[in-house]
């Protein structure tokens, strides 16, 4: 059964958390229904309910505990964790928004810290491992589906096919990639990054995954600073990394469109159809 605000509030109450009747529902996420609510003592809480069951929930909670001591920013501290509900006190800050320009180096520093963590203990937590061949095969499958279902210019298809076939253009060293660094998942105060939420997409995989969203929403100059901050704090910037990031970023409508086809999300299919039909 799909989650609802009522089912989430009831489960929170059954787990000892009594929340007021006033709440705000956020239905924008692909994977979770989110509820903003306030406890009797005035503490604001975030409730998340998975739209589909998944074992990754346990791994996400363990990962948060693992990375928390290393990061210069806050991450969620889960107080309720069941198969159908996550609840934690709301972190400080507000979602960055699509026009955010970082006021300091915390984003680049945080990504560098994550990429430097040893991966064996993280793999033991249950975080998925996606080696370069696995990633390429998965993306090739998505592209084959998109070619069948959407009208995509030949030049665009060839560019993606060449990139996916060129194994030497893919990094071989896998890292803890937070993934999905969308502005809505970054909490800021006065332009400064203070927190990261929604870690369900974390994998041990391509470090470029943590630059795809910033590539879209940062100005070119701000993106240059992000890569410089990342490198200054120990991140590895290899020759061809920027092009690799740009190609992964351009592939987003393929992923979104095929996800929409698989889950019945007509809005995602329509959005992908429009974007994929463009010449570049």
From TrEMBL:
| InterPro entries membership | AGP_Transferase, Aminoglycoside_PTrfase, Kinase-like_dom_sf
Q: Which residues form the Aminoglycoside phosphotransferase domain?
A: 26-244
Specify the protein name. Macrolide phosphotransferase
Could you confirm whether the keyword Transferase appears in this record? Answer: yes
State the UniProt keywords alphabetically. Answer: Transferase
Q: Does the keyword Transferase apply?
A: yes
Provide the transmembrane region boundaries.
none
Molecular functions (GO terms): transferase activity
The record lists the organism as Kutzneria buriramensis
Q: Which SUPFAM superfamilies match?
A: Protein kinase-like (PK-like)
Q: Which residues form a coiled coil?
A: none
Pfam families in the record: APH
């Amino acid at each position: 059964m799909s989650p609802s605000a009522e089912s989430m509030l009831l489960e929170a109450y059954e787990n000892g958390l009594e929340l007021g009747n006033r709440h705000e529902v956020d239905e924008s996420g692909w994977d979770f229904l989110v509820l903003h609510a306030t406890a009797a003592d005035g503490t604001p809480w975030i409730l998340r309910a998975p739209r589909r069951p998944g074992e990754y929930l346990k791994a996400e909670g363990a990962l948060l505990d693992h990375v928390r001591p290393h990061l210069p920013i806050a991450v969620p501290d889960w107080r309720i964790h069941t198969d159908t509900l996550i609840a934690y006190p709301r972190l400080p800050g507000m979602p960055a928004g699509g026009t955010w320009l970082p006021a300091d180096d915390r984003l680049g520093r945080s990504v560098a810290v994550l990429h430097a963590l040893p991966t064996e203990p993280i793999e033991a937590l249950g975080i998925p491992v996606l080696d370069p061949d696995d990633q390429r095969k998965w993306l090739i499958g998505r592209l084959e589906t998109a070619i069948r279902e959407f009208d995509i210019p030949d030049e665009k298809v060839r560019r993606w096919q060449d990139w996916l076939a060129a194994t030497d253009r893919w990094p071989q060293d896998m890292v803890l990639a937070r993934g999905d660094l969308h502005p809505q998942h970054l909490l800021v105060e006065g332009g400064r990054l203070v927190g990261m939420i929604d870690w369900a997409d974390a994998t041990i995989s391509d470090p470029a995954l943590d630059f795809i969203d910033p590539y879209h929403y940062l100005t070119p100059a701000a993106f240059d600073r992000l890569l410089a901050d990342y490198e200054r704090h120990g991140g590895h910037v290899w020759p061809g990394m920027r092009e690799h990031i740009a190609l992964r970023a351009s592939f987003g409508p393929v992923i979104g469109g095929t996800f929409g086809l698989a889950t019945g999300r007509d809005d995602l299919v329509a959005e992908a159809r429009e974007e994929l039909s463009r010449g570049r």
